[in-house]
Structures are given as structure tokens and as C-alpha cells.
Amino acid sequence: MIALKVSVKNDASEFMQRYVESLSGSEKAGLNKVAGKAAVLEAAAYHREFDRAGKWRGKNYMGKGGGEGSAFGSTITAGWSFGSSDQDGAIIFNDADHYAHKVHGGTIRAKRAKALTIPIIPEARGRRAKDYEIFYHTRLFTIKGKRALFEQVEAGVKKGRKKKGKSGASGGSKIRAVYLLLKSVTQSPWPGAVPPEDRLAESYANAWRKELERRLENL
């Protein structure tokens, strides 16, 4: 969660200062609610730009390029919500799956299986090992002393298997690794995962002042 606090600066007009000081707790909470919702929109805009710029893609990314964004990035963008407000500020949050891990980093360990399966070819990305076998009509196997799942492919297939039984180039066969087998993976916090504080604070403060001005005009 991200908590933001805003207050009237010292250079505000004397009338405005007196007005803000006269506000009740619920009235200030109302101002902070409007500002908090503006911060939510700003946080979502940041992550939309972040995703379209390809900044969720690591050095081992194997998906499509382009600036259309990703399913994961869209989930993070849509995950921003307004939480609550009081006279001191507002809370906004993002509860999208895996977002907390991107922010804080940490170690992922195998739970139900003996090892994590880490895709190392594009065709395996986003697929469990069992699903990969079904989709490509293949069999994955281990080799003693190697921490990977392998498959046998036709020697002429250079850019991935043929789907659902379609034959590839002839000329013998070869073995290639499809998934790494690891007990755990430790990841650092993802650079830029959290929207810049000054960007959210500016959006928050602008919305707060505009709402205050609107209320003053209606006095």
C-alpha cells in the first residue's frame, strides 16, 4: 500500500489557511478521498506506460515484442484501487497477483513438486511441463547429472517444434533442454515497479487543491 499525506503550504492565502483549519475531520477526509482517487488514476497511467515500454520484460524475456503491453502488465495496471481516507491523508493499494513480489523481491521455492520448472525456450513460456507435453505431443525426460527437462526433436527444427503432430524437417533427431529444474529462485525487487512518489504526490496535491477551490467557489 502507498500512503500519501498533503497539507496546505505556508504560502497559501490567509483566507484559504483559515478555511482549511476550520474544516472538520470528515470534510478533510472528503478532500483526501478526491485526491486519493486522482492518485489511483496516476498510478494506473504510470504502469500502463511502463508496460507499453516493455519494462516488465527481463533479460530472459521470450515473448513478443512491440508496444502493445502484456497480460501481466495489464493486470498490474488494473490492480490499483482506492482504499480509504481520513483527515490526514488517503491510502491507495494494488492487490494484483505477484505485484508484491515484484516490489519486494524474494525467494520462490518449489512446493508441490520436487523442483521449479523454468522455461528456457519460447514455446514453453507460460506452459507447465505437463501442458507442454500435451500441446506438442512430446515427452520430456531428465538426464543424469543435468538439472533440466529435455525433449527429442527433429534435427531440422531450428525455431521450435511443430504443433499437434505436424511433421518438421527430416534428417535424424537431437536433444534440447526445454525447462531448467531448480529448487528455488531468488529475485531482487523489480526496478520501477513502484510509481515515483513525486509523481503520485503531485497528482494528489493538484486534485486536492482543485477540489478545495471548487468548494470555496460554492460558498
Descriptive overview:
By secondary structure, the protein is α+β, with helices and mostly antiparallel strands. It has six helices and eight strands. The strands form three sheets. Strands 1-3-2 form a three-stranded antiparallel β-sheet. It has a three-stranded antiparallel β-sheet with strand order 5-7-6, with no helix packed on it. A hairpin with a 2-residue loop joins strand 2 (80-86) and strand 3 (89-94). It is elongated and about 85 Å long.
Key features of this structure:
3-stranded antiparallel beta sheet; alpha+beta
Order of strands in the sheet with the most strands? 1-3-2
Q: How would you sum up the global shape?
A: elongated
Mean pLDDT figure? 84
Please bin the fraction of helical residues. Answer: 25-40%
* Class based on secondary structure composition and strand pairing: alpha+beta
Task: Compute the number of strand runs.
Answer: 8
Number of helices: 6
Question: Could you name the ranges where pLDDT drops below 50 across 5 or more consecutive residues?
Answer: 1-8, 164-170
Q: Gyration radius, to the nearest Å?
A: 26 Å
Strand content: 15-25%
What is the N-to-C succession of helices and strands? EHHHEEHEEHEEEH
Q: Report the sheet with the most strands, covering strand number, pairing sense and barrel closure.
A: 3 strands, antiparallel
How far apart are the first and last residues' alpha carbons, in Å?
A: 35 Å
